[in-house]
Amino acid sequence: xxxxLQELKTRLVEVNDLxxxxxxxxxxxxxxxxxxxxxxxxxxxxxxxxxxHVKFTDPAIGRLLDDLRPYEASLLYDSDEAxxxxxxxxxxxxxxxxxxxxxxxxxxxxxxxxxxxLGRARRTILLPCKRTWIxxxx
Length: 138
Description:
The protein is mainly alpha-helical and 138 residues long. It has one domain. The chain is 82% helix and 0% strand. It contains seven helices and no strands. The protein has helices at residues 3-31, 38-56, 59-67, 69-74, 80-95, 100-108, 113-137. The protein starts with a helix and ends with a helix. The relative contact order is 0.15.
């Protein structure tokens, strides 16, 4: 495998880990988090979102994508590696246009009270309805 492709994959795994951690915080917020934790959770999600964005828009990733262009051209268009490079390049070119401060603000908005209210609604309305339905269907 191309060493530059391996480096790109390593960097993308780190970005994915940060995004996955933010998604886990969001899930926890909507399912279990007490309402008083919204401010701290917003801060946590903003930090993870900003870090993921900064890592993904690092100029080193852009250089790797440029360096991998000839390798990508030598592969079948539908191959996994060519697709990874192509899709990553498309996402990278879009992402570099967005400032990290905007991404931090975007992620912090996920902790708004309306989001907590949805989690509360799921616990108090949807889950009892689901339990009732499951009880009738067995």
